[in-house]
Amino acid sequence: MPMSVPEPHIIVRPLEPARCEDEYALHLAAVEWSLAESIIIETEEDIKSRPKWRDRLQPFYHQ
Length: 63
What we know:
This protein has about 60 residues and is mainly alpha-helical.
């Protein structure tokens, strides 16, 4: 019997446009900051949610 998977509850808020040059610069800086460092996952121990799934699945090694 297939296992049922609950639907995720996702809240999406619309991105409001900047109202002035200063807000635009702030938005741009926030986006650049969030992209400044990439996430590096080398082993399953690097994944914070590991305790929730470690007994149920094995990660697929793809690199």
